[in-house]
Description:
- There is one protein chain.
- The chain is of the alpha+beta class.
- It folds into 5 domains: 2-142, no CATH class; 168-183 and 378-434, no CATH class; 203-243 and 250-373, CATH 2.40.50.140; 447-555, 3-Layer(aba) Sandwich (Aminopeptidase), CATH 3.40.630; 582-654, Hypothetical Protein Ychn, Chain: A, CATH 3.40.1260.
- It contains 23 helices and 24 strands.
- The radius of gyration is 41 Å and the shape is globular.
Amino acid sequence: MTNDTTKPADERPNSQTTGNNGDERSILSRVSKWLKKPGKPGEEEGRTASPPASTPGRTDVVPASGETSRPEGDTAASTGTKPRRRKRPPRRRSKGPKPEGQKIEAGAEGEQPVSASIETAAKEKAAAPARPPRQRSPRKAPDRAKEAPKPSATSQPVKGDTTLKLLINTDEPEECRLVLLESGKVESFYVETVSQAQTKGNIYKGRVTAVEANLQAAFVDYGTEKNGFLPFGDIHPEYYANEVAADTHWKDLPIQDVLSKGQEVLVEVVKEATGNKGATLTTYLSLPGRYLVLMPGSDSAGISRKIESEEERNKLREMVDSVSIPEGIGYIVRTASQEITKTALAQDVRYLLNLWKEIKKKGQTVKAPALLHKEQNIVSRFLRDHFTSEIEEILVDDEEALAQVNNFLELLPAAQRKSTVAKLHKGTQPLFHQYHVEKQIEQIYQPTVPLHSGGSIVINPTEALVAIDVNSGRTGKDKSFEDAIFLANMEAAEELSRQLRLRDLGGLIVVDFIDMRDSKHIREVEKKVRDCMKRDKAKVDFSKISKFGLMQISRQKMAAPVSVGSYRLCPHCQGRGMVRSVETQALVHFRQIQTGVARKEIKRVVCRLPMETAQYILNKKRADLIELEQEHQVEITITPDPVMPPTESKIDFLKE
């Protein structure tokens, strides 16, 4: 009865109740515990047991088993009311999910009076079988019914957190979009338009148009508007005009000695053309499949580093060795090859070898420049490169694309296909609208991304790098200063890694985190960035957060930014995002008129200006115009044009 020390003085047991002989009490308590059956208390216990915790306000006696109390005058008189009241809190603390545990515990604590004997305990045991019919088990049933749904209710959201859905929108011929949803949140977004079709992965037969010794590179005409850029390091030795030693490094050779203008080469696009820069090319070709990447002209062989199990790597090596791959063709086993069969791998190798034979045969017959192999469409590329067994559902709004998805799923081994189901969307709303994806896609093109706790990150791509600024906003509400900053930086670390994937921003990325004082918080934010970037297929490198709160990230640019195919440069602001005010623009034009009329032989000035600018000059600068006309003996005519954009103008200085 150690819990009695916490009770008020009027509820603690006195010396008469507890007894003077402690040894006799402990022996009797243990014997009574051995003789009692759990859940079936005897008559004596029914008289002296305290009421359960569920009825704290009652003064009558309710047995723990749920039966109705029986008035016993002798027992009530001998025990009194205080012993019953003082035993409520211990039973309340020891209350567990199992009522039987309470009854055993009550017997072990010696709730029987000390005057009870072993014979009384034996009588209780004998009388126990006759008691069950008098129990009221339905009293506990409602509690169980209320508590039962709780585990299932909490388990469902946990399962939903890992749900992956792939939505494919191809109902419009001008654009094809793919979205990977995780619990309703966009994790990957891919788009391909007619005006911005992808050329990365295409193989061409090109002709060298220029060899630049200073750049150690060549420019190749492969059939597009801009010539491709071919670095010396990406030129295969088989294209060298002169024979060189096998151990000679390309850096020790001048490019003009081994490559000549007009030479024909097979090239592959490895980087899309951006801005004024042409595409980056290589002569080291690669043909990606589902489980393997074939590299003609290479002797290297490897397995994806993401396959960490040594047993699995050895198994894959044996499978590849059993498949006949000709000499002079290298390979890389992809991450998707885990848990595949030898038949599936051999089928993939056979397809890639036949594809290479067709490309080589076509390259020997066609005239440069020409397209030899076009990469698959966006749906096939995504399924080949990004499909995993974790994707539970694929929804498509076009029957042709659905057939393409089903054909892909049928070719997968059973271990990778598992429970993935492909369905045709038949709802009244468009597919992306039904799953609230359109708003999330629009957010990709916005510079400011809100965070869950009230902060935000601002993403500003520049010519040389991408600048990301973290703002705390309303994150600090009801939190200490340091905790608010730490929370904002942790949320920003997770969101910026997602935005880099969605926007496909590459190169040097500088993140300006909010300054943190605690070094432990700094390490946690660095770890959060690294953990979140593990999902990125691009190669990523990090630096530590500097004393100025800056973190540098180098990310491989997989393709052109997602905004390139959907947006064009604003003709008014030229990408600055701002235009001059009406007052400033009017002053600029007025100074041009002043400079023009100062020349000799100018007799007339005709100005066609935007509506607001012309009105400002005619209303605010009327006196200055009259003064110019009188001073220089010229006629100035200003004509407002409501159609003219605000940044354009036309001013003619006439001599007649």
